Amino acid sequence: MKKGFLALIGLFALCASGCFLADDTGDGNPSGNANVPSGKAINIVMIPQNGTDVEQLSAKSGAEKAATDLGKSLGLRVTIEWQAPTSNTAEAQISALQDASNRKPAAILLSCIDSAKLSRPIDAAAEKAPVMTYQTDSPTSSRFSFYGINDEEMGQRLVRELQRMTRGEIHVAIYGGDSASATS
């Protein structure tokens, strides 16, 4: 994933749709106006599949940079709250999602471990805060958006490029995914 692109899409989508903004004073009075004076804050919770994967850490870094840049341009304090699950299981991620939604952040960004198990918890969380999935989707849930690549198309492009570079003289195997989170 390109650093920052994920967060930028999510943050712009939230602000364009009238994101929930909380006053720095903590009075809990949300505002639907994205054009707010300085002194306002947006908290976005980011729940990765795990807290150690290089791709997830890259998405975190990009989200934090995009939050800083967008915050400066809008005159807001935008924070990314990294809430990695305690283990690489759907149950741990569901717990993190429930905890995040109970705090009613401006939005939740989620990389699903198991889309089937997370669909209903996403629906419940989306009643409290907008939920966007990234990297891995839960298309049957009520998440407002998904950011990711077309894995099949990317695999085909990769194979074509490797064939071109090696002039078809070697055999190539492509491994993709995280075997720890694979479902059968």
Q: Please give the radius of gyration in angstroms.
A: 18 Å
SSE-based structural type: alpha/beta
- Estimate the helix proportion, in percent: 40-55%
Number of strands: 6
Report low-confidence residues grouped into runs of 5 or more. 1-6, 12-38
Mean pLDDT over the full residue set: 77
Q: Give the biggest sheet.
A: 6 strands, mixed
**Helix count, DSSP H or I runs of 4 or more residues:** 5
Order of helices and strands: HEEHEHEHEEH
The general outline is globular
Q: CA-to-CA gap between the ends?
A: 26 Å
Q: What is the beta-strand fraction?
A: 15-25%
Overview of the molecule:
This protein is an alpha/beta fold and 184 residues long. The protein contains five helices and six strands; from the N terminus they run H-E-E-H-E-H-E-H-E-E-H. Strands 1, 2, 3, 4, 5 and 6 form a six-stranded mixed β-sheet that branches. Helix 1 (5-16) crosses helix 2 and helix 3 (90-102) packs parallel to helix 4. Mean pLDDT is 77; it is low at 1-6 and 12-38.
